[in-house]
Design goal:
Elements (H helix, E strand, L loop, with lengths): L23 H15 L5 E5 L14 E4 L5 H11 L4 E7 H7 L1 H10 L4 E6 L29 H4 L5 H5 L5 E8 L3 H21 L2 E7 L3 H4 L3 H15 L3 E4 L2
Parallel strand pairs: 1-2, 1-3, 3-4, 4-6, 5-6
Antiparallel strand pairs: 5-7
Helix pairs in contact: 1-7, 3-4
Length: 244
């Protein structure tokens, strides 16, 4: 029997705590595959704040730092400046990066800090009960918008890549999705591009991942993939927003 896939060396052999159908596990594996392919396992440092991925250190088998909610870019800035030869990345959700951590990500990007950002957009606060997030779509029902998000009360959903694209310090921005095999392959390429730019040019980059959250969306894993494709991609279009 020919072996096609094995667990990446950079991924620990642990049972997952994520809900069935969650996109975090897919992105975790993709990051680990690229870390192995680039041979940077001994020099990579990941930073995860509060959120569903707060215990990502249980899955990544390389150096990890856990930080306060929204503060990953600030901590990444300090680590990268003290250890410029290390490969540093933050792994942040939309409730973290686009809400309590908005100031940190904007100013780190504006300064052109030389680390990678992997941003999980599932249009909800997944860990704390499915409340409205900055990326929640118009009309989307959450525990804090039971009749759907509306513009008058909550404004429009934030498009983070487009928001950061005007900053000269940003080298590369791309939005991807993990809803089907083709998009997952593109997501892996985007991760590799982000890490490669950091290795080659000490550049700031961000990859946004549209991910399903079946539990908060109150859908089956299969239906959540369909919902993502039919609703999220039209508002958050996939592709390179800035850079090569």
């Amino acid at each position: 029997m020919e072996v096609k896939f094995t667990r990446p060396q950079s991924m620990k052999n642990r049972p997952t705590h994520y809900c069935p159908g969650c996109g975090h596990g897919i992105v975790h594996r993709l990051i680990c595959e690229i870390v192995d392919e680039l041979g940077i396992r001994q020099k990579v440092i990941g930073i995860c704040p509060v959120g569903c991925s707060v215990v990502a250190y249980d899955y990544f088998d390389f150096d990890m730092v856990e930080v306060a909610h929204g503060r990953a870019p600030a901590v990444a800035t300090g680590i990268k400046r003290v250890h410029p030869d290390q490969v540093v990345f933050t792994y942040q959700g939309d409730g973290d990066l686009a809400s309590i951590g908005t100031a940190e990500i904007i100013h780190a990007a504006s300064r052109g800090e030389a680390f990678s950002v992997f941003f999980i957009n599932n249009a909800t606060y997944g860990m704390t009960g499915g409340q409205m997030a900055p990326t929640t779509l118009l009309g989307q029902k959450t525990t804090t918008t039971p009749f759907g998000r509306n513009v008058k009360e909550a404004g429009y959903p934030l498009r983070v890549c487009e928001l950061l694209s005007s900053l000269p310090g940003v080298a590369y921005l791309e939005r991807v999705a993990v809803n089907n095999p083709s998009n997952i392959r593109k997501a892996k390429k985007a991760i590799k591009k982000s890490f490669s730019l950091q290795l080659e040019r000490d550049s700031f980059s961000l990859v946004e991942f549209l991910c399903p959250c079946p539990t908060s969306w109150r859908l089956s894993p299969l239906d959540s993939l369909k919902w993502l494709e039919e609703n999220m991609i039209s508002y958050f279009p996939l592709g390179v927003v800035k850079g090569e």
